[in-house]
Amino acid sequence: MTLDRISLETFRNHAATSLEGTGRFNLLVGENGAGKTNILEALSLLAPGRGLRRAALADMAGQDGAGGFGIGASLVPADASGPAAEPVRLGTFTQAAQPGRRHVRIDGSASSAVALGEWLSVGWLTPAMDRLFADSAGARRRYMDRLAVAIDPGHAAHAARFSAALRERNRLLSAERAPEAAWLDGIEAQLARHGALLTEGRARLVAGLTEALAEAPAEPFARPALSHRAGGPLGEKDLLTALHEERAKARRAGRTLTGPHRDELDVVFAAKNVAAAQCSTGEQKAMLIAMTLAHGRLAQQGRASILLLDEVAAHLDPLRRGALFERLAEGSAQIWMTGTEMAAFEAILPQASVWRIAEGRAIPV
Amino acid sequence: MASQEIETLAAALARLPGLGPRSARRAVLYLVKRRENALPALLEALEGVRDTLVECDICGNVDTRNPCGVCSDPRRDARSICVVEDVADLWALDRARLFTGTYHVLGGKLSALDGVRPEDLSIAELLERVGGGGVDEIVLAMNATLEGQTTAHYIAERLEDLPVRVTQLAHGLPVGGELDYLDEGTLAQALRARRPLG
Ligand SMILES: Nc1ncnc2c1ncn2[C@@H]1O[C@H](COP(=O)(O)OP(=O)(O)OP(=O)(O)O)[C@@H](O)[C@H]1O
Ligand SMILES: [Mg+2]
Ligand SMILES: [Zn+2]
């Protein structure tokens, strides 16, 4: 299944943009500031979550509009003559009166963002993610959680519950008055329950990625070796015990010392055994691409899959660019790529639908 | 509407849940038109509630008598107490007579971030009620929020040494769900399937 008949209304710099006649490969080409990434962001909102910029909904409404935006797309079955030939219409929008509230429509009926995940799995790689390996451990935990949620939506609830419980416990630990033991017990019970499931979800994700990565060729994209390093004991019971035992120390520190808020995602360039953060820009990009493709396969789960690749071609040498297109062609995801120059896409132009983006408009090429 | 008094009334009504400035104006207009009948009747009803509204010494419910209608109802089973966060939760559970015992209103939930501590809730009063004897079962009906569940855990622990059975609403409740917003079917299901605290 692929997305087609895409429409953006007063979404960022797009007043009214529509994209029709999409294919497996879709290219958005245009100058800096034309509105290419904005289109990818709009597509990323056809999945649960906050989209590829993690921006506030209110910021997405076009500045020249009435406040509020709309995004629509049809999910078209590959076999247009089969029994399930009717396209599914997906839509999400906000309104001026409540610019921070996102509405979802599926085939015209009001629905929830979570329900979008029934139909579509959306993955992305953006230039902002280039910093992943050099960034803080917190950024890598967020990365793991976003990827885990795409596979299991329940992961989001555990992440939210865990961080709420963590804030409560840290407040009690840092208060002047010594916290009451029974109150800490109550909070720790929830920290342990949701924390254990949170860590477990991350570990499962990393194991799945590792498996998917092993199936892909080791060349020409640097193959990363991933490992999830837990920040506390695994399992609810052991985590609960550890939290109980660390109380005196945690009280002196004024914060929780053990648990999934200390988890790490370790990434190593497998062939050279070098930490990803120490690798070259191109090598880091190659590893990110490998991880993005592996996750795309892992997350598909029988759904339509789309992959948003913002400016990936630009940083790759011609050999790797060709290899990327080949790998993308082997998969089944619908691909959306952006670039400032047509030349970078020469190798796939014959199989691609192309739009030239300029000043918030899309012109088919 | 020029008069200051009418504006004040409209502003006060606009703050009521479910209303807003537009509906408030319609309500004011209605009362002005029926100033002979509807207005005095409403005034009397409001005054009656204001003059008699009291918090029940036993359970914390808000009623026009003390002990409240629930606590003084002889058909109710005083051996079973359902603990709720707020009066709104009590009313939600009692709307359809789902629970045949009595209640205990905590007056909130534990929250370190909001500075709500155990002594800010009527937990000591609950322990006293149970300690006084004649109570077999405590049903913890806290909301399914993080704070609600922390509070349930806390109370269960404080009740540990007392001779009562402690059960909890079954978690058919949506995460982050507030009792007050649940329909009666869901509430009945949660009550029927209440389980011992794990
Ligand atoms: N809410 C908004 N309303 C109107 N315009 C906006 C809004 N938010 C962002 N923009 C504008 O949208 C324009 C296009 O942004 P976008 O990131 O899509 O460009 P791009 O084509 O990806 O460019 P680049 O090649 O530099 O990455 C920017 O000039 C930005 O100022
Ligand atoms: Mg861009
Ligand atoms: Zn009472």
TrEMBL record, chain A:
InterPro entries found in the cross-reference section: AAA+_ATPase, DNA-binding_RecF, DNA-binding_RecF_CS, P-loop_NTPase, RecF/RecN/SMC_N, RecF_2
GO terms of molecular function: ATP binding; single-stranded DNA binding
Binding site for ATP: G30, E31, N32, G33, A34, G35, K36, T37
Major subcellular site: cytoplasm
Subcellular location: Cytoplasm
Stretches assigned to the AAA+ ATPase domain: 22-349
An annotated GO cellular component: cytoplasm
Pfam families hit by this protein: SMC_N (PF02463)
NCBIfam families in UniProt: recf
Family: Belongs to the RecF family.
Role, per record: The RecF protein is involved in DNA metabolism; it is required for DNA replication and normal SOS inducibility. RecF binds preferentially to single-stranded, linear DNA. It also seems to bind ATP.
The protein, known as: DNA replication and repair protein RecF
Organism encoding this protein: Parapontixanthobacter aurantiacus
Encoding gene per record: recF
TrEMBL record, chain B:
GO MF annotation: an example: zinc ion binding
Gene Ontology biological process: DNA recombination; DNA repair
Gene3D superfamilies: 3.40.1360.10, 6.10.250.240, RecR Domain 1 (1.10.8.420)
Cross-referenced CDD domains: TOPRIM_recR (cd01025)
Keywords: DNA damage, DNA recombination, DNA repair, Metal-binding, Zinc, Zinc-finger
Residue span(s) of domain BRCT: 94-198
InterPro entries to which the protein is assigned, alphabetical: BRCT_dom, DNA_Rcmb_RecR, Rcmb_RecR, Rcmb_RecR_Znf, TOPRIM_dom, TOPRIM_RecR
Record has Phosphoprotein as a keyword: no
Signal peptide: none
Zinc finger (C4-type): 56-71
Residue span(s) of domain Toprim: 79-174
Cited function: May play a role in DNA repair. It seems to be involved in an RecBC-independent recombinational process of DNA repair. It may act with RecF and RecO.
Similarity annotation: Belongs to the RecR family.
Protein name (Swiss-Prot/TrEMBL): Recombination protein RecR
